[in-house]
Amino acid sequence: MKKIGIIGPGAVGSCITVQLLTTEHKVYLIGRRNACITYQDPSKNVNMTLNVVTASDITEPLDIIFIAVKIPHLDGLYKQINHLTQDTTIVILAQNGYGQHFKLPFQNMYQAVTYISGQKTDQHVIHFRDEILHLQQDDNTESLKKTLASSGLSLVLHKNIEVEIWYKLLVNLAINTVTALGIQPASILKQPHIYSLCVSLLKEGYIIAKHSGINFSEDVIDEIMTIYQGYPDDMGTSMYYDVLANTPLEIDGIQGFLYRQARKYKLTTPHLDTIYALLLSRHHVFSNNS
Ligand code: NAP
């Protein structure tokens, strides 16, 4: 039996917890405070209550940790949970974005590409679809996959996870930006100027990826625009919901990461530079308010 902790009792963390509760392992859902949250998965007719404990309630080291807090909440997290780890603990960062590793200098840490869709409102989580994490393939993740084989969580292992991480970064880049800055859900894509802004952002993202060693086919831009067009009009993005909730934005790991890569390779990225400045100013207002 393994001891598993999930940090962040939100949409992603609660879903991971529910998938693991059916296994023989000891599972802790860890939040900033003790609480009870309700979890609903209408497609599977699941309604349950989850107990949330704090990291200081746990005195034994854990074998596996999933981190599912939003990017601005990583600050200070290392100190909060370091006592839960030992040399062999596998830490999975189940977040969007990239480049957050340095905030969590754990020995065996893996950036997951997270395909879990849900939303937390107050103390209630609704899960919409998917329970999939993509990870780099190695001995640790092969063994993790075996350990969690009886759970509802799908682990997909890749020879080069960077490609998956960058693909999700590009998918998040344009749609998160226009929904957050335009304060409208996916219907905003119907506006021709917004549509071309998305294409321009994706073109810049494609070039940044290329200079960073990730060679997508040029078709990736059309492919992502086609994905966007499949979104229901009323679908929001996490950054759109963060704007509505006046909470800090996850720009550091998405637009900010790409912006820093563009500077590193001295690339000209006028659309990214503009939207990054605007998002950053919004982020500062929300950070100062929170
Ligand atoms: P969320 O619903 O806001 O949940 C985050 C949770 O983390 C909140 O319950 C928050 O607690 C908790 N938290 C913050 N700081 C903490 C700390 N120091 N210790 C313990 N818990 C802490 O966020 P989410 O939607 O699950 O997103 C998590 C990550 O997954 C993000 O990077 C997001 O972009 C990514 N993602 C989300 C989705 C989705 O559909 N939701 C899909 C793919 C990827 P409080 O309640 O106290 O604030």
Automatic annotation (TrEMBL):
One of its GO terms (molecular function) is phosphogluconate dehydrogenase (decarboxylating) activity. One of its GO terms (cellular component) is cytoplasm. Residues 4-130 form the Ketopantoate reductase N-terminal domain. One of its GO terms (biological process) is pantothenate biosynthetic process. InterPro entries: 6-PGluconate_DH-like_C_sf, 6PGD_dom2, ApbA, KPA_reductase, KPR-Related, KPR_N, NAD(P)-bd_dom_sf. Catalyzes the NADPH-dependent reduction of ketopantoate into pantoic acid. Belongs to the ketopantoate reductase family. This is 2-dehydropantoate 2-reductase.
